[in-house]
Amino acid sequence: MRLQPPLALLRALRWAAGAACLAAAGGRAQVVRFGVMEDSARAVLRAAWREDSTQPERAYCVRRARIVARVISPTKIDSIFHVLLVRPAHVDTASPNHVSFACHAGTPELHTHTPATCLTDDPQYCAAGGPEAYSCQPSREDYEKLIQRGDPFAIIQCDRVAFRFYYPSEYVSPAKDDSTSRRTHRALHESFAPNNTRFITRFSL
Ligand SMILES: [Zn+2]
Q1: Which domain holds residue 183?
Q2: How many beta carbons lie within 10 A of that of residue 93, not counting itself?
Q3: Do 131 and 199 have their domain in common?
Q4: What is the pLDDT of residues 132-143, one digit of tens each?
Q5: CB of 101 within 8 A of CB of 89?
Q6: Residue 122 and residue 151 in one domain
């Protein structure tokens, strides 16, 4: 079922208003964000989870959610994101490493990360488990999409009952490249990596 435009608009405005309030408060206070997958949504996602290693990523749209701001003190605010209802998204393309989809404007998104490690997007090169299985980390693309959409959060389902909420504030753009920031960068470089080769050797993985 698709949202009618007026409802979609209303939804977008509601998110925008909520985000604006949080942003305004966040300007003065330190905000900790919590995501809560309520039972109604959790049951659907739990039932749909599969363990096979060749599956593509899947996607959902968050159709009902509630944002609650809890003021702990004038300088501390907890923002709690309750997700109440999700619906499968219309998927354009999907592979074990990627899913291309878009929910309506103002409707936050959820996608799965699979329980497998895949060398390429071809399912025949996927194996169950391994270092990339059950990854709860948003990819750079995941963050960029969230920022571009302007949603207050997005979610990764990375195991049957494991949900990773992620937020625009986690993805910080580089400082503007003016003379001040160039000076800052140079100062950082000097203080943390006086010898670049040794620095890399010492900390490379
Ligand atoms: Zn992802």
Answers
A1: 176-205
A2: 10
A3: no
A4: 999 999 999 999
A5: yes
A6: yes
